[in-house]
């Protein structure tokens, strides 16, 4: 495939090399790091950020941004938990929860395309509004104790599939599907085209607005899925869940080498980016670094990665 | 007279690729010296070697009798050599005076407080000296491209420039602005300032320049005085062969009416525009820039809303509200600005060529690579697109080849109606000819073609009929037999 030739040059290996170095250092510093148990735990944690970041990759490729992902996660989780607390069947509640995420994404997309509002502003507004709705719906209190006997819902966050935790399986399945979508379908090609030059794409007869709405809907749906995994793991829906998750997702996308100006990037990079953030969190915890310093180090790593990327461009 | 700039036997290679091979270039004070050559001939490299962006591998550069080795364009500027780029560098939120003195503002002592009165007074004196119709306190963002360019020239002069290098200075100017620029250039000449003039527009070169130097494939071909040479000789020097007739003739039987536009109106932009184009016909559209030509075409293509009017294709009324619907009706439009509106620069030649057609080529949304590849290679061949690989990013191609990609992407969908807006802007002579031949081939296949162009010789050379737009209205539709430039120009400026 032509894409492959262009994308697999040395430059693209940067994030992967970074991840490998990080793993080597951590495995020397901590003997717990390279254990199976630790990695399953790590990947389970990564899955939530990765799912959101996959959607964010599409949004950023079109030249947009979605700040509302954390609030979408919280509201859709609360909806699912609330329904189940009222005795709705788990499968149906999950479906409705996912769908609510889709609807919120579509709303973002419509505001951005039809209302001609800059994505940053539009999703900043919906981020606030969706969070508010979550607080209204939950009355500011966590929803708990609703799914103790629903196997389907329990599985999402805590189950295993042939020995692999379900969140990791979900992450990999979504990754493979989106990888194919981005590389092999017109949807993927048009995502790149719109981010590369929106006006030229419109004049080439592409349905720019519709595609953008789909992309925000995808991100909304994946945020909801991440929310359901989180809710299932904690067995409770927190009204403040997902706060600042947009930042980790954007960081994963950028660490993976996708350009914030749109049109350039790849989803493999995002997976690696999410892993870098996850490994860093995990390793710093293992090394008993205080959570205050952890933030400083995470910030520094993101900056370093972006600076190295700049140097390659020049 | 001692030359201002004297470049001798300049050598420059990138890796094993030689881009300049023994080039001589000499600029005298007060002359306008055209630097010509096809895209890729080495013009920009030569300028970059002169101003220190590239280091030369061999040869000498003497400025004002002193051999120089600039390492940065700033050093060249200190010697009075200033480049005015095609993309202008003015800051839209600042005034004319602030732009002229950007970074060199007169201050009160060392306080950093700007002496605005003094700055505006000095700016006004430069503007007067150059005969520029500008006020120092105007905001530059509201000014036309032509005026913004004047600001850059004034800025250069205020730094005591001795030689201005202008890269395609007229590409985005209206006819009137070009005349204003030429009068400024004449003023500069009188003051002993030299101009290196890079352009593809032959008419302009022969109007304004004193000498012409031609490069071809990195070789220096020669320097001619303007009165000793002619159009054909220069073209031959540039392409190294005779390209024959500048505008190839076509023999096409013109068929039935394809497109009819009736009373198309967008208040304040264009009004009551009616015309028709037939199969196999080329309708040239002339008019000054800003006359509404482009806007009318964009409205027909669905890229811009209009208030009233009807569009008929093959006699049936159609409603086109987006480019997508226009494409579905068999209309293609090659836009004026290929970088902003025509191409996805970061994407490959392959991806650009198949963009409008990508959905038809896919099965259930999945791209069929083999199908695409066949189409792509057939178009690369048919249009003679020079690219090392179909996977090369389109931004790496020369202007002419980029324009061929734009053509190719629309030809791939077999349009019935083709709108061309400035199809040869920034394209060199050889590629121009190929584009003209392509237009003729399409006309022969029965495509109805509308060609908007600012280059009158092109309009007259290529069209069956010429529609002239003046201030948003159709001023005249003229049969093109023995039509001359004066008649069209008169209509374009509002006369009869």
TrEMBL record, chain A:
It is found in: Cell membrane. It comes from the Bacteria. The keyword Transcription does not apply. NCBIfam families: PRK09512.1. The chain crosses the membrane at residues 46-79, 91-111, 159-182, 213-231, 265-284. It is a multi-pass membrane protein. GO terms for molecular function: transmembrane transporter activity. The lineage of its organism: Bacteria, Bacillati, Bacillota, Bacilli, Bacillales. The keyword Ribonucleoprotein does not apply. This is Ribose ABC transporter (Permease). Keywords: Cell membrane, Membrane, Transmembrane, Transmembrane helix. GO terms for cellular component: plasma membrane.
């Amino acid at each position: 495939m032509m894409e492959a030739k262009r994308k697999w040059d040395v430059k693209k290996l940067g994030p992967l090399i970074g991840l490998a170095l990080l793993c080597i250092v951590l495995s020397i510093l901590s003997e717990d790091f390279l254990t199976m148990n630790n990695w399953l735990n790590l990947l389970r944690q990564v899955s939530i950020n990765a799912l959101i970041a996959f959607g964010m990759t599409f949004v950023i490729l079109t030249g947009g941004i979605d700040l509302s992902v954390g609030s979408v996660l919280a509201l859709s989780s609360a909806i699912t938990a609330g329904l189940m607390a009222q005795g709705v069947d788990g499968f149906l509640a999950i479906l409705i929860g996912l769908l609510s995420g889709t609807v919120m994404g579509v709303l973002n997309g419509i505001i951005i395309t039809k209302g001609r509002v800059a994505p940053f502003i539009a999703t900043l507004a919906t981020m606030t509004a969706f969070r508010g709705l979550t607080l209204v719906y939950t009355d500011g209190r966590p929803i708990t104790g609703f799914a103790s006997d629903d196997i389907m819902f329990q599985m999402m966050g805590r189950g295993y599939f042939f020995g692999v935790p379900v969140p990791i399986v979900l992450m990999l399945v979504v990754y493979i599907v989106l990888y194919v979508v981005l590389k092999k379908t017109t949807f993927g090609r048009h995502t790149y085209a719109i981010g590369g030059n929106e006006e030229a794409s419109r004049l080439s007869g592409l349905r720019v607005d519709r595609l953008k709405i789909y992309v925000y809907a995808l991100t909304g749906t994946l945020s909801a899925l991440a929310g359901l995994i989180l809710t299932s793991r904690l067995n409770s829906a927190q009204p403040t869940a997902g706060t600042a998750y947009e930042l980790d997702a954007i960081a994963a996308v950028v660490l993976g080498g996708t350009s914030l100006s749109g049109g350039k990037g790849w989803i493999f990079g995002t997976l690696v980016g999410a892993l870098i953030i996850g490994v860093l969190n995990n390793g710093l915890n293992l090394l008993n670094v205080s959570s205050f310093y952890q933030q400083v180090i995470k910030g520094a790593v993101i900056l370093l990665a972006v600076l190295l990327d700049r140097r390659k461009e020049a | 007279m001692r030359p201002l700039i004297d470049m001798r036997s300049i050598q420059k290679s990138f890796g094993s690729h030689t881009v300049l091979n023994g080039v001589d270039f000499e600029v005298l004070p007060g002359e306008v010296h055209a630097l010509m050559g096809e895209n890729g001939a080495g013009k920009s490299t030569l300028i970059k070697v002169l101003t220190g962006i590239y280091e030369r591998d061999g040869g000498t550069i003497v400025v004002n009798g002193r051999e120089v080795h600039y390492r940065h364009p700033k050093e060249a500027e200190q010697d009075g050599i200033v480049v005015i780029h095609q993309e202008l560098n003015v800051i839209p939120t600042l005034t004319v005076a602030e732009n002229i003195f950007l970074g060199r503002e007169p201050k009160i002592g060392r306080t950093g407080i700007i002496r605005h009165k003094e700055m505006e007074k000095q700016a006004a004196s430069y503007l007067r000296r150059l005969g520029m119709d500008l006020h120092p306190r105007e905001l530059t963002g509201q000014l036309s491209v032509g005026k913004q360019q004047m600001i850059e020239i004034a800025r250069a002069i205020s730094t005591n420039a001795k030689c201005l290098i202008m890269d395609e200075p007229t590409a985005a100017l209206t006819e009137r602005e070009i005349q204003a620029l030429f009068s400024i250039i004449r003023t500069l000449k009188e003051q002993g300032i030299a101009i290196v003039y890079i352009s593809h527009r032959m008419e302009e070169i022969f109007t304004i320049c004193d000498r012409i130097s031609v490069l071809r494939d990195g070789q220096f071909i020669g320097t001619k005085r303007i009165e000793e040479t002619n159009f054909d000789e220069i073209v031959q020097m540039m392409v190294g062969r005779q390209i024959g007739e500048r505008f190839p003739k076509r023999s096409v039987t013109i068929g039935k009416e394809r497109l009819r536009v009736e009373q198309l109106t967008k208040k304040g932009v264009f009004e009551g525009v009616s015309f028709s184009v037939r199969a196999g016909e080329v309708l040239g559209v002339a008019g000054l820039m800003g006359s509404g030509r482009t806007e009318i075409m964009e409205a027909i293509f669905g890229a811009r809303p209009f208030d009233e009017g009807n569009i008929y294709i093959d006699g049936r009324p159609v409603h086109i509200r987006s480019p997508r619907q226009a494409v579905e009706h068999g209309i293609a439009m090659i836009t004026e600005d290929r970088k902003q509106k025509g191409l996805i620069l970061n994407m490959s030649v392959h991806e650009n060529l198949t963009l409008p057609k990508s959905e038809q080529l896919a099965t259930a949304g999945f791209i069929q690579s083999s199908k695409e590849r066949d189409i792509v290679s057939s178009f690369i061949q048919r249009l003679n697109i020079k690219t090392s690989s179909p996977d090369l990013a389109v931004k790496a191609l020369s202007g002419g080849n980029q324009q061929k990609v734009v053509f190719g992407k629309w030809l791939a969908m077999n349009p019935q109606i083709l709108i061309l807006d400035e199809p040869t802007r920034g394209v060199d002579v050889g590629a121009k000819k190929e584009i003209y031949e392509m237009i003729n081939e399409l006309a022969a296949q029965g495509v109805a073609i509308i060609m908007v162009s600012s280059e009158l010789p092109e309009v007259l050379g290529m069209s069956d009929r010429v529609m002239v737009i003046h201030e948003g209205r159709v001023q005249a539709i003229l049969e093109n037999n023995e039509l001359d430039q004066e008649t069209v120009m008169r209509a374009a400026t509002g006369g009869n």
